[in-house]
Amino acid sequence: MHKPKEKTVYLAVSITMLTICALAIIIPIMIVFMSSVSDESTVIKYGYTLWPQKFSLEAYDYILTRFDVVGRAYAITIGVTFVGTLVSMLISSCLAYALAQRNLPGRKVFMFFVLFTMLFNGGLIPTYYFYTTVFHIKNTYFAYIVPNLLCSAFNVILLRNYFANSVSPALRESAKIDGCSEFKIFRSIIVPLSTPILATIGLLSAIAYWNDWQNALYYVDNAKYASIQQVLRNMTNNISYLANTSSVPSASRQVPGLTVRMAIAVLSMAPLMIAFPFFERYFVKGITIGAVKE
Amino acid sequence: MNRSKILAKAKTWFPFYIFMLPGIAYLLINNYLPMLGLYMAFTKVNLVDGIFSGEFLGLQNFKFLTMSSDFPLIIRNTLVYNLIFLILNPIVGIALAFFMNELGSKKILKCFQTSLLLPSLLSIQIITYIVYAFLCIDTGIMNKTILPTLGLDPVKWYTTPEVWPALLIFVHFWMRSGFSSVVYFSSMLSISPEYYEVAELDSASKAKQFWYITLPLLKPTIITLMIISLGAIFKSDFGLFYQVPLGNGALYKTTQTIDTYVFRGLTGSGNLGYSAAAGFLQSVIGFVTVILANWVIRRISPDDAIF
Amino acid sequence: MKNFVAIVLAAFMLVSLAACEQTESSSPSSTLESADSVQSETKTVSGVDNSEPVELTMVIQTDGIECADNAMLDEAINELLNEKLNVTLNIKRCTFTDTRTNMNLWLSSGEPCDVFNSWFSWNTYKDYYADLTPYQDLMPNALEALGNFISNGYNGDQLLGLPAIKDWVSYSCYMMRKDIVEETGMNPEEIKTFADFEVLLRKIKENHPDMYPLTNGTAGRSTLFTSTVNAREDGTQYMTDMCIGTGLGIGLMDPATSSEVSCMFFSDFYKDTIEMAYRWTEEGLMYDSSILNGFEQVVAGTAAGYGTSYKPGIESQETVSCGTEMVAVCMPDPKDGVLVTNTNFNWGVNKNCKDPERACQLLDLLYYDVDLNNLLSWGIEGVHYIKTDDPNIIEYPEGIDASTVSYYSWGKWELPNNYLQYVMAPSPSNLWEEMDEFNMAAAPSKALGFVFDTTPVEGEITAVQNVITQYDPGLGSGTLEPSKLEEFQQALLDNGVQKIIDEAQRQLDEFISNKQ
Hints:
Largest interface: A-B, 113 and 100 residues
Largest sheet of chain A: none
Number of helices of chain A: 14
Oligomer: heterotrimer
Shape of chain B: flat
Number of strands of chain A: 0
Organism (chain C): Neglectibacter timonensis
Radius of gyration of chain A: 24 Å
Structural class of chain B: mainly alpha
CATH class of the largest domain in chain A: Mainly Alpha
Mean pLDDT of chain B: 89
Keywords (chain C): Signal
Strand order of the largest sheet of chain B: 1-2
Protein name (chain C): ABC transporter substrate-binding protein
Helix content of chain B: 55-70%
Organism (chain A): Neglectibacter timonensis
Mean pLDDT of chain A: 84
Number of domains of chain B: 1
Distance between the termini of chain A: 23 Å
Order of helices and strands of chain B: HEEHHHHHHHHHHHH
Structural class of chain A: mainly alpha
CATH architecture of chain B: Orthogonal Bundle
CATH class of chain B: Mainly Alpha
Pfam family, one (chain C): DUF3502
Radius of gyration of chain B: 24 Å
Order of helices and strands of chain A: HHHHHHHHHHHHHH
Strand content of chain B: under 5%
Strand content of chain A: under 5%
Low-confidence stretches of chain A: 289-294
CATH topology of the largest domain in chain A: MetI-like fold
Largest sheet of chain B: 2 strands, antiparallel
Number of domains of chain A: 2
């Protein structure tokens, strides 16, 4: 009797709580957006506001005049994010699937091997040293994709947990009896059953590739082939550097103003908002599979 | 074990080692090989001669951390913030995932999830500007709009260390909770609806269902994420602790952590041996903590230990 | 023959080192006379065989914004270098925010960066430079252009780097909006003490209550130059020499007459200044912004002036940025500027350079060749700039301005010899003469040429630096109560500031006695 009522109460609570959280996030981001379309002087004078006191598209104009740089960087980053995410999902899920086999000989050792990489890292200088002197990835396409981002222990562990706890071993066994190879089982049984976690990992690694500025900065010499985050970072970072390093003269006045920095933030967010529904589809699919099963 | 059994076993497991190969090879190249560079922590680094040929100093580089009279304060801040994050992370993440799971409607879910994830796309500089937009002394939204509306006096945010623990914790969750809620949400999606249907038949309340079904099934995820965070118990998010408070020294009491200390101290000299030593120490402590935690968990519930 | 030249030059070096002691230093700017005539007088260098083509790499800093015409410039530069030195130059452009990280990476993996500058980290980088002493005869023009100032490139008896010829004098000033200063009826040239300055700021506040009369120049940096100035009893200011480290506030408080090392934060002047800063901030005379630059606030109309470091031509430079006429209030009298050790910024040749002789030739060219310098700093004539009737002055071509030009160099000021660069209108034609006069008029610091070896006290420096960032910005900007000063000083002592001072004094005394 009380069931539907309880359900409504929970729905109402959930919507309220999520709305509060979403507002807490959207309002500040609205402020970023609004100040990017505001007049610079009024922003400095009156502070940031939820609605522009004086509307101006100057900031976007500034960026558009550099469209050749920004446009190229966008293209590079989109390509890198796409390829990198795919390869990274493949490598991580294969590794995780093997680690999810409870009886795999040496499983604990390999698990530890993976986990250990989260605790210790050699730091930037040795990493760079080996990548450039042994593997010669400098100024190649690998430079954008390979260092640090291809396989994160965090993702592997998440995937392993999912495979181990949510995919029934019985499925594998029965497929095995039907004569399927392990690779086929993985491809046609495990992967389709794991869409929610694969979508999650895909999303996390897409965000990591999208936000990366270090690989392009360190491993690609020609600033012409900068990634979008590197371009944006260069446009916003100079100020905080000047503030911290008293010896550099502030002679440079090329540092763009506040509103430009905000416009840059908006532009760096926009593509993911467009790409998000793509991942979202798989989350939703995960729900459907669950519901149909009964 | 006889020969044929071994062969059979090898045949069974061989494909799985092939599965592992690319990942393991990558980690060897990307993570293990550069670890040789940890040797820098024990030397006087001279880059032109090569990273492995610096003069060996033993533990001398490690001493610099303890030289500050504020050493205890720095350690306290680092640890306490991490402990707070450690406890609150799963609570916030699971709560958000739970709410999302209750929604039912995919369109609404999509809206909420997109907005929760937006902060993870913002660079730390932009987050710094957003915080500043709220806290700036004379034009900030807090002092100009919110506090006067509530009838409160303006606060000098950037010189009042007492308000920063709360602010930093808030900003941390503002930036990261979308991310962790997605992880918990995907784990929740994997829970078979049958469990809940059975519970419904027994007319168990939602709270009971959450407590007796959802939470136990999320336990492996929670434990894994916690162990991973324990590995970073001695590290801190430099952007959050340095850039968000605008590097303001007046807030030192509540914002100084090991990473900010190293940064502030080494901007002049850039001593690579010192920074390597600090990083090494942070890793060793994280490592010991993880081993201990894993050992404890193996004692209590062996299935959940992660190695 | 070559050895003979080297000995003669070494003798010359010794003489010039001794000459440093005297107040009158010889001008480093014989190149100034007329930029064009210099080339014809250029000393020819014999003894190096240029018939083999060589590839060299040079690192320069940029603000990270890629110029469309970089490739075009590289071609033009290489055309010039091929002809003169048979050298192909590979220019690595490096974002200045990431210079140190990138340099560390390149150096650690032995990537070529044959000619590079120390980017304000002389102490760290000096070990990576080749000793140029044996190659001095390959750089006659550079040595002549530098004159006595070459002593700043020495570490012990090794010549490791060549100082960049630019503004060498440590000197600060306050840029104020001219119209607003005129309203008050005060003459900016007569303001010589903080007391006078306070009167001006108060008058401005009266006329414009919605404006801060004074703010910071660079976002996040202090408005007042508490740690680089000192004052006499009458309140007039003069510059100090923070030769141990600007960030540490340790150095010579009276660099022209005394070699005593002490810490700024214990001086009376510091105490007076922070009390004043607190008063000014409380009364709304001053405001320090962490995310806005001074000129941005002037443009927005929220501030009337800001503190910045002084060099000749600064008024026209700041007028351009602010969009309104600016005037400088020079608080230490220009004659009280101090010629300090600018060893933080030297050009040198990497230890692992395969052909140091040719690299030295390239350095020499960078110190005297007008065409090369203007290619690097302004681009190609007719494309990125055009000449005017005044041979020193250039302009942007029609329809192009500073923000639309397809090549610009952020790091003009760091190129080896600034005096060779044309001057962009509206800067004065005699900019470099003024700069040279300014450099030469200053009294040399007792510590000129001294480089502090931080190794014995690095741990203490880390701790002390942290203490300073905790208190100094707050005290200096007037946001922290002056009563905290005692706590600050105690913390400095607790963290070993005295040990740093003692070590610095020991090294400096040794340096001075060696010089004599």
